[in-house]
Amino acid sequence: MTHPAVCRADFASTAPFAGVSWELVGEYPLLGSTGVVQSVCATEDYIICIENYNDQTTEPDVVSAYYKNTTDAGGNPVTQYSLARQVQNADYAHANGMAYNPVTHEILVSGYSSPDASNFGCIFRLDPDTLEQKERVPVSDSYNILGIDYLPSTGGYLIQADTNGGYRFALLDASLQLVDDWGPYPFDFYMENFQDLCVSGDLFFIFPLTMHLGIGNFIQTYSISRKTLLSNDAVNFNFSDDIASNEPEGLCETNPGEFIAIVNVQKTDGGRFLRLYRTRVPYLFQISASSAEHGFISEGGEVSRGEEKTISYTADDGYRLAKLLVDGLYLPVTEHPNSYTFSDVQSDHTISVTFEPIPTVTPAPTATAKPTKTQNSTVSNAPEASFGFFPSVASHFAMFWKSAVHTGSTVLQKAIACFSGFSLLTCIRQANPVFLVLPLLLLVLILLFFLRLRYVRRIRRERSRKALERRRRTYEELVRDFTADQEDEELSIDELLLTIEEIQKEEHSGAPSEKNW
């Protein structure tokens, strides 16, 4: 018997963005004349960005929500990455970083620099549904906060301080209180500044600002547990010739190993736009396999994105597959009797099987052949239209009565035995199958008996009809004889009347009337 291992899907390497390709999935004009989209995060339904409308003033900034999926929150089809709504009613300072907390369902915005001194070292709370600012929370009076993201493992946050704090990382709890300060970090990569950061598992990623260095764009990958920089990966967005300048500002994970990067671009014609780029990095997903007793299931393990994994299972002798549970859903065991294959793996999966004993079939007793009783041939007086296999009414009734008495006696005996110390439910469960069908057999015999009576009555009515037909023909013959001899009219009439009278007497004395039939 195997048991599922507790394991989280993870990146295939410590340099996940090395050599990946980026796909342009959206382009939208910037609203401010000097506006720049500074940060991004992803909720269950939206990708949310903040455009710092004017960094030199406290004018309200622009909060935009784009559809993360192909359906909206209500399940209606939408164009993925299209604009859902925009709000411009509050200032978020520089709005350099964003983090979505799915537990409290709120967004935290790290303000960074601002012409308003009261915004120094503050974090803003944002409602992801209304896109409106809720409150401003002071966190530090010694540094501003460049980047921020949510830590599912602790329920708190990872932040990065600006140059006033020596570009340090620190951990906050859910109440935004400091719990771990890494101290000034000895960066080994030249940069102008830092953008927002994105956390995924034990790794987090940052776009360092290299806009004016002429060395291209990079993503830095760090380990939270090891508190160290793991890699610097060059990023190639394959800009067309009409892009005069660009600045990647933020990154968010929309699905495991799938990321959206926001990039501000200015074209040669002076147009300024926000671009959304998507990439999928090499990723390992976990297949967790488990089974109950009395069988074997092959092990799960890590599977690279897009690959497949087959899990096989076998029942012990005397057992069979009873249940197959895949990702919380029961599947027909007849369709997957020996194995199940996860194809094009894009997420974690679970599978479990249950085995049950094979039912033992009790053979039915073999009926003993009885000798066939030979009956003497007798001449039947039944009409030609009757069926030969039906017995007479008397014999049929005798057989029915004998069977009914025997059936009733058997039922009574079993009922007495059943109710002597047992409940009705126990009696039904322990009853012989033959006993359970006896009421049905009794009903069938009663129906056959009444069908036989109806059949006999129909035969007798047919006989009566034929007798009346014979009398009618007799009368007609007498009339024809009478009318044929016109010379002896009186004698013929007397003879006719006498003949009819004799026939009627004979019928009354020798045959029952139709009424009695």
Short description, anyone?
This protein has 4 helices and 29 strands.
Secondary structure class reads alpha+beta
Strand segment tally: 29
Mean pLDDT: 83
* Rg value: 48 Å
Main beta-sheet strand count, sense and barrel state: 6 strands, mixed
Could you characterize the architecture of this molecule?
- The protein has helices at residues 393-418, 424-430, 433-484, 489-510, and strands spanning 10-11, 23-29, 36-42, 46-52, 61-67, 83-90, 97-101, 106-110, 122-126, 133-138, 145-151, 156-161, 168-172, 178-184, 193-200, 203-209, 217-223, 228-235, 243-255, 258-267, 272-280, 283-291, 295-297, 301-304, 309-315, 319-326, 329-331, 339-342, 349-357.
- It is of the alpha+beta class.
SSE blueprint and pairings:
Layout (H helix, E strand, L loop, with lengths): L9 E2 L11 E7 L6 E7 L3 E7 L8 E7 L15 E8 L6 E5 L4 E5 L11 E5 L6 E6 L6 E7 L4 E6 L6 E5 L5 E7 L8 E8 L2 E7 L7 E7 L4 E8 L7 E13 L2 E10 L4 E9 L2 E9 L3 E3 L3 E4 L4 E7 L3 E8 L2 E3 L7 E4 L6 E9 L35 H26 L5 H7 L2 H52 L4 H22 L7
Helix pairs in contact: 1-3, 3-4
